[in-house]
Write a structure and sequence with these properties.
By secondary structure, this protein is of the alpha/beta class. Helices cover 42% and strands 24% of the residues. It has 8 helices and 7 strands. The chain has a 7-stranded mixed beta sheet, with helices on both faces. Helix 1 crosses helix 3 (50-57) and helix 4 (62-73) crosses helix 5. The relative contact order is 0.14. The model is unreliable at 1-19 (pLDDT under 50).
Amino acid sequence: VAKHGAMAHLIMADQNRSSSAASKRILERAYALKTPDEAKALYGDWAVSYDQHLEQGLNYIAPACIAQILVNVLADRTASILDIGCGTGLVGAYLVGHGYSAIDGLDFSAEMLNQARSKQIYQKLLPGDLNTVLDIPDQTYDAGISCGTFTHGHVKADALDEILRVLKPGACFACTIHREVWQSAGFGSKFAQLTASGVAELESMNEQPFYENAPDDGRFCVIRRL
């Protein structure tokens, strides 16, 4: 029995190493993205195995962290929230766990939205591309949240204009921004512009890791629409 148990343990360890290696390869592909079209192709391919690769293969802690950051600034559990770049619903699941009940999801990948739909987390799932105008009326939501959207090959900082448009005055937007695109995608200058124009303010920003036991590669922000 002990011999069989040891063999099973070795097989499981080998499978875990294989899964981790596959997860790292697909993450490298994600970080090599140059255009939104490349991103859409990747997430279409990745949708079915996305949760497994990120949560099990890479110990992805960012969704839990950004959900907690929203909890810290949004006491009303009935507030209407837009999960921007919702993917398969990783962030939405944490929000439901914190007691929020009025969450809509937005993503540009139909395959990702299909995965999110199966979890029955969201009231509505909306197709939308942050590089264009969203089919959402002005001042619709009490809050917004986004995890992993502001990264390599996705959207530029000007997308914040469209996000803020669909938030109500006083609404908060909790989001992650990859450290490597902070300057190159224009986020530093965009926040300065939004503050100077009186549209919004950067209420807080912390540098934290996206993955457990990894470097602080993310900037976790709260933006307040004025």
